## 1
Amino acid sequence: MNLQSLLAARLAAKGPIRVGLIGAGKFGSMFLTQVPTVRGIEVTVIADLDPERAKAACRTVGWDSSRIAGTRFVARGSDAIGDERVEVVIEATGNPAAGVAHALEACAAKKHIVMVNVEADALAGAVLARKAREAGVIYSMAYGDQPALISEMVDWARSAGFAIAAAGKGTKYLPAYHTVTPDGVWQHYGLTAAEAKAAGMSSQMFNSFLDGTKSAIEMAAVANACGLDVPHDGLIFPPCGADELASVLRPKPLGGVLDGDGVVEVVSSLHRDGRPVARDLRWGVYVAFKAETDYAAACFKQYGLPTDASGRYAAMYKPFHLIGLELSISVLNVALRGEPTGSCRVWRGDAVTVAKRNLKAGEMLDGEGGYCVYAKLIPAARSLELGALPIGLAHRVELLRDVAAGAFVTSADVVLDDNSQAVQIRRAMEREARPATPAVAAE
């Protein structure tokens, strides 16, 4: 609640916070449109595979010619990280391998990193966060994106002395969505393919929101940042509106849908028959929590907080999130307070690869939101036991054997590049997570 006073002191002492942005897509563009109105933040360099497209994005979001002329545009993320003026790097490419590489480069360069790239965080966040700590820099989730907002709400509830029942977000979900491909995605958004193309919308990216992949990735990030449990066999997406959170998101013995307290879960804006849920949280985030004493439960009632029938369980929520429009909150926290707006702390959940259809040996997987696979959230320990292929490594890899529809794809089922940095970092995280084998005493 004092970022503005801290920023004023910073401006007086050292001048503006200088940022390097990698990736000028939708998230990056939403941040860029706010930069001129946030006194004290300057985007010094923007890296994008197509620098001219990045310049066009700046014009589209309202930058004037002088601001564009004063910004350096480059094609490589390394050039943005290496710019000596930059102190905070924003990684917004959405490419997991690129995100891993840029995070490691930022650590080596002693630059703070705001990780919009939740795909990379779900793939190898535990290692990336550790590397940042060792380098003395901050590795942070991106405020405005749902994982950071959920993490903030969990921190609030715990700091107020409540036990977490569940935390998560809303989305539009039906079980049939798991097998939707980019060819059929737009009917579920009420758009034609032509309308989507004219708006510059990627069918594969939007399909990753629909088929459950993005939910698995984001909830893995939340579980790993907050130390929450994940369902054994994937998110269940219960239909649930804002008024039902406290009743639905509680343990089964109490009439809820959870196996226990302290988990991540995503609620659906649709009933299973397709009817809309009243007061849905499709665009929002929530935390469900419980009072630890009779007195606290009585206070819930006295101050009008909706609860379950027991009076113990309650919930708080935000009905919307503003994506990149809120990203400056992360930049300010990192630079002024030396604190992340959420960060991976432990490997609890993994977003792993599941076949959308019967897959044949020799096929090339096309990653999240594609024609071949989707992601399911499972416990990290179970992922290790299965040898499951993380969705972040399911891009352009060849299948060695057939995989049935609905089955997990394992790392042994595909050809992974042993020289890939992303593969090496992921394997390092897996090694660190496995229990040490006791040494055998010499006879």
## 2
Amino acid sequence: MTPASPLAVVILVVAPDRPGLVADTTVYVREAGGNIEEAEQHTMHGGTFVQRIRATFPPGREPAAIERDIAALTAGRVHVHRAGERTRAALFVSRQGHAAYDVMSRVALGSLPLDVTCIVSDHPIHADLARRFEVPFIEVPVAGRDREAHEAEVLAALAPHRVELVILARYMRILTAGFLDRLGCPAINVHHSLLPAFIGAGAYERAWARGVKLIGATAHYATVDLDEGPIIAQAATQASHRDGPDDLARRGRELESAVLAEALAAHCEHRVVLDGNRTIIFEG
């Protein structure tokens, strides 16, 4: 008979700061027979204590029980996740496919702990991407549908896939509050850093004409406030007079892909803690 495996978990704590919190949580793990493999904590400006612990417990322990115990101990919000579990995700993409292709390549290479269960698009052009990685392709065209009908069809198509995360890999539809509420899981978006100065099509051409000296990308949780959700990852690079519009666009696409991957890794490895509209990102 194969012996039961230890329970490996990631514990996230958000609580009012007080003396002894670190000792209380670590002593709890020890007295429960657990072993701490990683631990990091920080007290935010304003007195909020945040902590991330990766630990193993003897077989038979349940994440829900650990969550209840530590929540009672700290008087805070506690989430306990099984370590190493892959996140079921839906990948949304419009015409620009660079970020979507990058995500799927990283998943195939094992560098992102994701299972992409479907690719959703408002255009048919990325059906080949889905075939290449043997993932169902869901096309929901915009033509002939109002926003409410389009979103209802997308939600109906997603339902069988039981997704835990939606990845907006340059998906250019504005999502309504009703859609985000009914989605039932977080959504992570990525965009270039030229907003709000250069909104809409041709942003890099207009940025080049203005002589911008810095371009970048931002990945964040999607909210009803367009491109204003809690930021998970950002990156920037210098631009020079040698860069034409095509150079800026190419470098921008590279930044978007890298920043989205960084944000997805942080989310799926349970390294993100939300504090209002701000995030605390623990190191990987």
## 3
Amino acid sequence: MKKRTISMILAATLLFSVTALTGCGSTAGTETAATAGDLLAQIQERGTITVAMEGTWAPWTYHDESNELVGYDVEVAQNIAERLGVEAEFVEGEWDGLFAGLDSGRYDMVVNGVEVTDERAEKYDFTEPYCYIHTALIVRDDNEDIKSFENLDGKTTANSIASTYMTLAESYGATATGVDSLDETINMVLAGRADATLNADVSFYDYMNVHPDAALEIVALTDDASEVCIPLRRGAETESLRAAINQAIEELRADGTLAEISEKYFGSDISHEK
């Protein structure tokens, strides 16, 4: 009788343990299911959104004299994060690596002056535009050979690898050399190691404000403004995040925040199409 009682107690204990473990597993599974497949819910649960950018492209994203990460895109991302109820966590890297990290899920979004192209639109879901820019063709001010984009045929340019600017230069027949920063790009043109560079007109104006004696000039601009948006991984998991970011962008445009940040870094309002 005593052995039977002990056996019954052991069996009951084992049953209770299995039930408790199963119950815990069910609860954990429910919590995971609440955020599974919904990137916005995951971001809000952890309290941060991972933002990828170069950190070398003034005035969009760069380091100031105290080595603090600053710039137009930095403040835009911080304001969007605030609207989502989280904090922006920045990760810096080279241009092509930003998209590789986005693809693999290491980054939640890329905020780095990304222009929408047909090729990118096939791969990523883009938010609404948060600013508009024109592409400038920049040369040394003593260059007599390049006066238009068509003159790039057979010439050399310096641009970020796989950027919109590199693609555009190559489409006009130029041989493009990949660089890592705007300063490096400009220095190559000034030194004669590249005939020209393509970049955002506002980035050039900002550079000239800091370096007014630089022997550079814009010889051509694209007619239509490019839309600068935030690329997200394509799929159902980013649908609610994209909607929330779009709402944040519209709120920031409506209350004048985007215009204020634009004036701070570019000296003009680029939050509206002109």
